[in-house]
Amino acid sequence: MDVTGISLTLLTGPTIPVPAPQFVSEALERVSVTHSDKGASGFQLEFKADRTSSFLRDFQLLATRVLASGNRVVLMVTMGGMPRVLMDGFITHIALAHSKASGASTISVTGEDISVKMNLVEESEGHPALGDSAIVAAILAKYARYGVAPKVMPTLSSLARDPLEEVPQQNATDLGYINSLAALHGNVFFVRPGPVPMTNIAYWGPPPRVGTPLATLSVDMGPSTNVESISFSYDGLAPTLFAGFDQDSETEADVPIATLTADRVPLAAEPPILFDRGLIKTCVVKAPGFKAGDASAYVQGMTDKSTDNVLTAQGEVDTLRYGSIMDAPGLVGVRGCGMSLDGIYYVNSVTHSLSRGEYRQQFTLSREGFGTTTAVVPS
Fold first, then answer.
1. Residue 307: strand, helix, or coil
2. Is residue 301 domain-shared with residue 317, that is, in the same domain?
3. CA 50 to chain centre
4. Strands 42-48 and 28-36, how do they pair?
5. DSSP secondary structure of 245-296
6. pTM beyond 0.85, yes or no
7. Is 378 within a domain?
8. Torsions phi, psi for 21 (to 5 deg)
9. Which pLDDT belongs to residue 288?
10. Is the domain of 126 the same as that of 244?
11. What is the pLDDT of residues 187-207, one digit of tens each?
12. What range does the domain containing 227 cover?
């Protein structure tokens, strides 16, 4: 599949993906890939399904098993001569939409990223003498055969546990347990393909809000405008603080615990949790069975998460005009919307939609409030 200046390569196979046969590439009509910092990323491939014109006994796409459930799929986009791995995952669903019009039937193939392999078997096992981040690293090491490289950020609490006092117990799939540990610290977990085919990075930690921003989204800037549409939403009720007491599981003493602000890397100049506290909710600390330090880290993580999506934006770009491929998660600059809305945003999700002659990207952005923290964003 080709768009002017952009080409898509499809690899597939039961074990090692190889370039798809010509009849598969010719039948491919549409591709959709969604990356998100929460939950699995997914893809959908839509093919023309015709057997009547050649009087075939079965649809060739189904009969050859090239796109069978469980096959691994790698999608690569080449733009400006630079290849980019857009998806590495496994086929999970196949659907046929029949039409009485000749050649109008379609076969849709849907799948998820490599993390789907982490969600197939429920485990019941202990992780003695390990803190939460070390547990995640140990679990992810099992998936090296899929080209998974762990990137695990250490936690400020539960760096290690005395096995004579407590042994963390897993009674869930690896993915379910990893996500539950992430929730305890206000963290995210996601798997991203690349940088080369058959390799993936599995990230566990706070939302990555540092690094070089993507190509800037420009609005109402004449010839420099590269955004097709964008809308913003502000939720003043989202930020939540915590206050109260927790009984330390070791000393049984009541320990005061409170959160005062978020610990995320700031992206907004006027977060409501600091500048407009009139609507800020305060909840009672509920962290039974935690040590005092763990309880404090838990409620801090809850406060951090509550501020992540105070200000959100949704929009779309034509990739040829935008000139770049967006990453999620990541950072991106916005300009042309006014000082309250301009600045750097965190990219929550991106959906890449490709069809013959067209490549669009739909995005969702967020930060903790109004106001830019920088006078200039990269052009």
1. helix
2. no
3. 35
4. antiparallel
5. EEE-TTT--EEEEE--S--SPP-EEE-HHHH-GGG-EEEE---TT--HHHHH
6. yes
7. no
8. -60, 160
9. 65
10. no
11. 999 999 989 999 999 999 999
12. 214-232+310-372
